[in-house]
Design brief:
Shape of chain C: flat
Structural class of chain C: mainly alpha
Number of helices of chain C: 14
Order of helices and strands of chain C: HHHHHHHHHHHHHH
Chains: A alpha/beta, B mainly alpha, C mainly alpha
Distance between the termini of chain A: 30 Å
Strand order of the largest sheet of chain A: 6-7-8-3-9-10-12-11
Mean pLDDT of chain A: 86
Strand content of chain C: under 5%
Helix content of chain C: over 70%
Strand content of chain A: 15-25%
Number of strands of chain A: 12
Mean pLDDT of chain C: 86
Distance between the termini of chain C: 7 Å
Largest sheet of chain C: none
Oligomer: heterotrimer
Amino acid sequence: MAEKLLEVKNLRTEFKRDKTWVTAVNNVSFSIDRGEILGLVGESGCGKSVTSLSVMRLLARNSKISNGEVILNGTDLLKEDKKGMRNIRGREVAMIFQEPMNSLNPCMKIEKQLTEAILLHNDFSKEQAHQRAFDVLKSVGIPEPEMTLKSYPHQLSGGMCQRVMIAMAMSCEPELLIADEPTTALDVTIQAQILELMEEIREKKNTGILMITHDLGVVAEMCSRVVVMYAGRIVEEAPVKELFAAPKHPYTQGLIASVPKLGSGVESLPSIPGSVPDLSVMPKGCKFAPRCKYATDICREKEPELEVVDGVHKCRCHHFKELGKEA
Amino acid sequence: MAQTNTNLDQNKFVAAEELPKAQSKVKEFTKKFMKRKTAVVSLVFILFIILMAVIAPFVVPYAPDQPDYTALLQGPSAAHIWGTDEFGQDVFSRLMVGSRLSLSCALIATVIGTAGGVVLGLIAGFYGGFVDSLIMRCCDVLFAFPDILLAIAVVAIIGPGMVNVMIAVAVFTVPSFARIIRSATISVKQSLYVEVARSLGCKNSRILFVHVFPGTIQSMIVNFTMRIGTAILAASSLSFLGFGANVTEPDWGAMLSLGRNYLNTAPHMVLFPGILIFLTVLAFNLLGDGLRDTLDPKMN
Amino acid sequence: MGKYFCKRVASAIPLLLVISFVVFMFIHMIPGDPARMIAGQDATKEDVEVVREQLGLNEPLLVQYGHYMKGLFTGDLGDSVKNGKTVVETIAPRLKPTIMLTVSAMIWATIIGIALGIISAVFHGRALDYIGMIIAISGISVPSFWLGLELIQGFSVALNWLPTGGLDSWQSYILPSITMGAGIMAVLGRFTRSTMLETMREDYVRTARAKGLKETLVVMRHAFKNSLIEIVTVAGLQIGGLLSGSVMAETVFSIPGLGRLLVDSINFRDYKVVQALLLFFAAEYIFINLIVDVLYGVINPKIRYN
């Protein structure tokens, strides 16, 4: 078994809304090995971005992590002070975001934005930093690095900006890369290129990647394991092949069923009825029960535990045994 | 509700349908507004000043022009809580009675200026093209006389006096209001429901009054409130410069101007009118802030 | 960039021409007979005619306008009726006090205002934010002449620390400068705060934090630099209006500057001086705004590189 890079244990994140605390992420645990790509899937608002920001400790001021551990290479990030955390951000964990055009500072040249992080985390001279910036841009497939360094973000395309973002994230060779919907805002052809680039990085540098997405296509292509989140909880966790072949949780089944398949001949795609419940008015039992066609009385009364289905496959459902056979 | 309406006039039909919704909107607004304590306190203060403007002559302890030659330039005391001026007139009574003059001057000026600004802004934003650039270039010219300078210029032309100050402040309100309403109009005009109305074949004038105008009301209310504060400041500044009310009148700015001569011996003559102007303007500004936050939480 | 600059300058020139025309018309907009107004109500008919001739009001409007425009370019703005000096001679000695005062007010108000806004935004929703915003909204609501008078009362009359008026020493600048700058500081503070709050929610600020940058660097280098583009515009508008804003402070502190001259000239019906001052203030405002527009282009890379 590969070496564990990141371990998140019982993470609970809350934020303040109208003077009361609501739980956005509840009891979330997962781990990532070196060189592994873990997919974190769910609808918008299910807490996947909050989870990633909790790992980086970049949450907005009105939120707090009230419980749990985030262990990176044996140290608990939640116990680090501000300064320690700053040393980890960018050096050990780096992050790329959904909107590459907005994620780069519009009034700063690319060079400055890249070297800023490089100089911060390395004992480099300006020339060395420039060289490193040049090299990383080249390594992410930017054709004219020198020119790009001299540009402002608005002079680059969206795909280019995302490459720059990846270059910036990789410039200090982090062990963990968190990618929050890295391809959502990009054209389909560019998407494929960016994903390929990330796969390449993983292979070369043995970087662990936490891939946050709502796109099951991306998951199928990139990830080795998948964690499915719903309403701030993990509802299913499985190796990617198993998840697609035999999803246990009704929510996962619904997600997979709603992805169009070429030549399937189905005229209308099945969709999951209803929408994600509001954080402040969560149902009492299973959070998915109101939208679940298999829901029974126990589902509405008692929240199910995350149980082991077999080996590494886990599922949070009272009825997964019966449902598994059906699917 | 539609069945009970035998008259199939479409306007009434729509109005009847919308009535309950409008009521709940007001309720929701009130509920949200009540949470903003500074705005509520400001509103209470403003209502108090308005009440004073109405009833002050009947309730204040002294007549505003009642001299008392035994008590000239006296500091605050039990008999005269805010002291007396150089004729022994009670400062508190004068200020309370004077609120009618100062408030109505600012209010009327703002109403006139707002009306002018709204009409110009609506026309400019809605019709665009040549009319728009004409109106906006005119505003640019007025903007070149920043702040109080425009009001001073107007007074320089038409001469001093309370009514002329009112006109000057109204003129000074127009361009900035026109600009605000114009941009509000443009954004409403581009919104979906106006597109729909247009595609249904509504007449231009109907679209303007039924659809676009209501859409700009929010920013109108907020800016109107804040402009009253600005108008009070502008009017009192003009009075202070000697362009406004006659110094014998109990206008806030004029009283302050007079008090200036006694800064050494009777500082209360400057202090109390100033505090009153300051608090009133502050209240209008805070109320405006509160209204803006309630009406549009996105703006900060 | 060159194109942007030319466009800005090109748009300012017609505006200046229109304004010079409006200011020219100023004397003709006075209700009744301006010559009679200037000569006074009890002047004889002959006296009124003399004034009319002096001001050139007996000539056709177009000829008057021609003279006026020619005068503008040759620096001949007519004579003051008050003391027989030319308008230029009357205005020139008043420039220095006003400009000194304006510059000192501008410097402190901009620095403090922006700092106030940044601090409030960084400590959003906490005590420092509330204190900052109380200062700002008070600064907007306070009548500047009253503030000036209370400052005199406190620092000159009661404490006897600073002079009550005039511009004899550097100390005499302190109180008028505070009086003039308070409003601008407040407006800038409020605007800086709201712009900073918006900017700090931007994705690139999160990126900067994700790099591991210190919070002060995140705020100053990333959030503030971007906010500055917007702040410059508002600051420009405020500063442009400052010169004419000297009216109140100069009146309160008896400073022989342009603002005071304007008030005196209006009271004296010295219309040629009023005209010249209005034109000067308007031109100054447009000029400052032009500079700000150019500055906006310089600090905004989206304009600089297009």
